[in-house]
Amino acid sequence: VLTKQTNKHWSLFFFLAICSLLRAEDFKRKTIDNITSNRMLSIARDSTGYVWLGTDEGLNKYDGLKTTNYRSNIFDVSTLSSNRIWDIFVDRDNRVWILNDRGVDLYNRKENKFIRFPSKSRPLHLLNKKDSLFVTTRQHGLFVIDKNTAEETIFSFDPLDPMSISSSRFSIEQTTPITKDNGAIWVGTTNGLNIINLQTKSAKRHYREKSEHVESDTILAAYKTQKGLLIGTSAGLVLYNKTTNKTKKIAEEKTNNIAPIRETSGVVILGNKKTLFLNKSAEITHTILHKSPKKEILRLGIGQYLLWSKGDEKTVVINIETDPHHILSSKEGKLPVKPEDILIDPENNIWIASKEGLFVASG
After folding, report:
1. Could you count the other beta carbons within 10 Å of the beta carbon of residue 169?
2. Order of strands, edge to edge, in the sheet holding 51-55?
């Protein structure tokens, strides 16, 4: 029988093990034959065990021994839309979605082909909710893919339609600008915040000049909680309750990202020099200081999280105790290369996709 004290010892053991595993010297360059390019931009693993590697010259499916290449062909619409693979997403049904320069492509596993969903400009952010994918684009608004029917719905700015969204532009500086809210979706653009009714397809705009809860018109991150909507901008973080129309200031610092923390039922707020942990009442419980901006968070295991950013070797490993007090500890680390994407597989191996190649630390 594991006691609380035993659990703490195991938690500390795994924390130290993860910290030692994330040392630069523990990573080895992994050479994969027949790969489209060593300049890697994205990585994912599907439930059948294939590792998908996105590069600047095509997509690769790796089974541990051999590699299958996929490239775009302008004369064949069943190929990739573009060869530069920015992101790879595997949903709960093991469907593989590819974000490239020209749109989103769905891999047809039975026919070994792709179904294209063109977006006119580069897709930037993806939110998966049940049967729908919500995808932002650089210049052509938000489009929604119905995964059952393959139908697309586009939301873009129309100066003649006050029920359209406030802007069609999104930026790579944003991290999580879209979040679901029951039958609606909050969409943060580079010029205002919007709430879209998914049944009526109509939007209500919120601008900084007219809304207390919009402190900057470029919304970097948004996340719906039980207490309301967390809105992160360069001016800080606020909590907005649309029912009462009240706003509460949470933090003054720039908010880079907002993500849930399973162990505490709260969220983490990633910033430039500090990261905040909020409980389910949206109260700050812990603050972690770090030397460089953090924009991404990866769950390594129970109570273990990695804070990192694309293009930066510096990381922070977080350990959260599972007892009621949720004691938190952290340790800064350094990766061997500047990461573009990071994957942890079921065997606890850590894969780093970088422009210098693929690096792996064995679990």
Report:
1. 18
2. 40-45, 51-55, 58-62, 67-70
Q: Which of 116, 115, 107 is nearest to 59 (CA)?
A: 107
Q: Of 234, 231, 250, nearest to 181 (Cα)?
A: 231
Average pLDDT over all residues of the chain: 93
Residue 13's pLDDT band (boundaries 50, 70, 90)?
Answer: very low
Distance CA 55, CA 287 (A): 36
Nearest-angstrom CA–CA distance, 64 and 111: 22
d(CA 129, CA 84): 25
Long-range (24+ apart) CB contacts under 8 A made by 95-99 are 95/147, 96/44, 96/46, 96/52, 97/126, 97/133, 98/54, 98/59, 99/42, 99/123, 99/126, 99/135
CA distance 334 to 316: 8
How far is residue 54 CA from its own chain's centroid?
Answer: 16
Statement: residue 264 has pLDDT above 90:
no
Contacts of 273 (CB under 8 A, 6+ apart): 253, 289, 290, 291, 293
Which H or E run includes 156?
none
Contact 362, 47 (CB under 8 A): no
Chain centre distance of CA 218:
18
Q: Which residues 6+ apart lie within 8 Å of 321 measured at CB?
A: 8, 11, 303, 327, 328
Residue in the block written with tokens 């609606």: 184
pTM as predicted: 0.92
Domain residue extents for the chain = 4-361
What 3-state DSSP class applies to 187?
Answer: strand
CATH top-level class of 4-361 = mainly beta
Whether the pLDDT of residue 2 is over 90: the answer is no
Collapsing DSSP states into helix, strand and coil, what is residue 179?
Answer: strand
